[in-house]
């Protein structure tokens, strides 16, 4: 069952783009949201995600996720959900593909280090930096900076985790330019994209963690949610190999989460009597979400992953070294901005220079950050594994 048709975002009703785009070349058959998606896919920032950490730094196996493959998996899940609910698939896909563009090298470890070094200039946040990338730093067009995405895509990137009471530096600047109505909820497409991200990394990080031998299957199966699926798989295929059983577990858990999300979202929309996109934005709570029971199980799953994977002792040396690399680079460039490439000598004043430094470092891939550290500061001692 799809939702009332007036709930879906419609490209024909878009609030438009910050910069007018007169026809100066062939446009083809794409609508506004399809062009947004394609601009994201063709961006430099999107290509760099192939060398940015998801869980494991510069993974030594071809089968581990990186930010790029994670973003593609989020987009697949998000588009499936949007289709089932009758939402706009292209806007959902664009938001899924763009949600991690602002990550610096080494994932959250790098983000924490960069935020610490830039506290005097407003800090660093990967969500805010995503907006800065698509609005200013990407420069593929002759008439303006940024990708000039539609209002609806920018709104979704800004508010996919809900209304924003106190926007940080980057988001505040974008809001001042385009008026994102930060106090309201985003479209259902944006809400779906956010939950698709959770579904993807909850389950795919299990796959990578077990493959690497960092996450213990016994610890995972202490969770009733995982144990139920594991036992059901064992009953269906009693002779299945461990490797295939893990793959089935990941697949079945995703299916359960998606199914619950579809049922609960339809229930919330019907209960709220919402029939238009404006009513979605004005709702008292998000309309896309898990049921209360599954939301509790998903929180327990996240808690297990933080305790047994993200904060596992085996990964701590990697995290510490990654933070040292990013912190050292930030301090070196802040102390002597002349070390930045010529193209990054764009501003004067401590805070403006700090933002240039943040922009430059955040754009680095894991291997490039290591190379720059070795050239400017000294060796990087990441463990051979992880």
From TrEMBL:
InterPro entries registered for this protein in UniProt: dGTPase, dGTPase-like, dNTPase_2, HD/PDEase_dom, HD_domain, PHydrolase_assoc_dom
Domain HD as annotated: residue spans: 67-202
Basic and acidic residues bias spans: 12-34
The keyword Hydrolase belongs to this UniProt entry's keyword annotation: yes
Name of a matching Pfam family: HD_assoc
Keywords noted in UniProt: Hydrolase
Domain of life of the organism encoding this protein: Bacteria
Span list, region Disordered: 1-34
PANTHER family, per database record: DEOXYGUANOSINETRIPHOSPHATE TRIPHOSPHOHYDROLASE-LIKE PROTEIN, DEOXYNUCLEOSIDE TRIPHOSPHATE TRIPHOSPHOHYDROLASE
HAMAP family attached to this UniProt entry: dGTPase_type2
The family this protein is said to belong to: Belongs to the dGTPase family. Type 2 subfamily.
Annotated protein name in UniProt: Deoxyguanosinetriphosphate triphosphohydrolase-like protein
């Amino acid at each position: 069952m799809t939702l009332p048709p007036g709930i879906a975002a419609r490209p024909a009703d878009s609030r438009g783009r910050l910069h007018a785009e007169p026809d100066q070349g062939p446009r083809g058959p794409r609508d506004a949201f399809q062009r947004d998606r394609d601009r994201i896919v063709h961006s430099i920032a999107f290509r760099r995600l192939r060398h940015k950490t998801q869980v494991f730094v510069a993974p030594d196996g071809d089968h581990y996720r990186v930010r790029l493959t994670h973003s593609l998996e989020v987009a697949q899940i998000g588009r499936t959900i949007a289709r089932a609910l009758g939402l706009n698939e292209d806007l959902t896909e664009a938001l899924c593909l763009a949600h991690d563009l602002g990550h610096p090298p080494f994932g959250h470890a790098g983000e924490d280090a960069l935020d610490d070094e830039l506290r005097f200039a407003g800090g660093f946040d990967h969500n805010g930096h995503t907006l800065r990338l698509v609005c200013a730093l990407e420069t593929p067009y002759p008439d303006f900076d940024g990708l000039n995405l539609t209002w609806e895509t920018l709104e979704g990137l800004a508010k996919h985790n809900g209304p924003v009471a106190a926007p940080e530096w980057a988001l505040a600047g974008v809001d001042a330019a385009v008026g994102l109505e930060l106090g309201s909820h985003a479209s259902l497409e944006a809400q779906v994209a956010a939950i698709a991200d959770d579904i993807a990394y909850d389950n795919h990080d299990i796959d990578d963690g077990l493959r690497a031998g960092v996450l213990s299957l016994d610890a995972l199966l202490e969770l009733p949610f995982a144990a139920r699926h594991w036992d059901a798989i064992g009953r269906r295929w009693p002779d299945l190999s461990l490797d295939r059983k893990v793959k089935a577990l990941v697949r079945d858990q995703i299916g359960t989460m998606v199914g619950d999300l579809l049922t609960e979202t339809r229930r919330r929309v019907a209960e709220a009597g919402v029939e238009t996109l404006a009513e979605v934005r004005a709702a008292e709570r998000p309309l896309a979400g898990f049921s209360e029971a599954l939301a509790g199980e998903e929180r327990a799953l996240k808690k297990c992953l933080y305790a047994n994977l993200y904060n596992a002792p085996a990964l701590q040396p990697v995290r510490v070294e990654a933070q040292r690399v990013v912190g050292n680079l930030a301090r070196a460039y802040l102390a002597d901005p002349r070390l930045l490439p010529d193209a990054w000598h764009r501003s004067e004043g401590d805070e403006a220079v700090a933002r240039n430094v943040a922009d430059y470092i955040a754009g680095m891939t894991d291997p490039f950050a290591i190379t720059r550290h070795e050239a400017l500061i000294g060796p990087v001692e990441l463990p051979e594994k992880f």
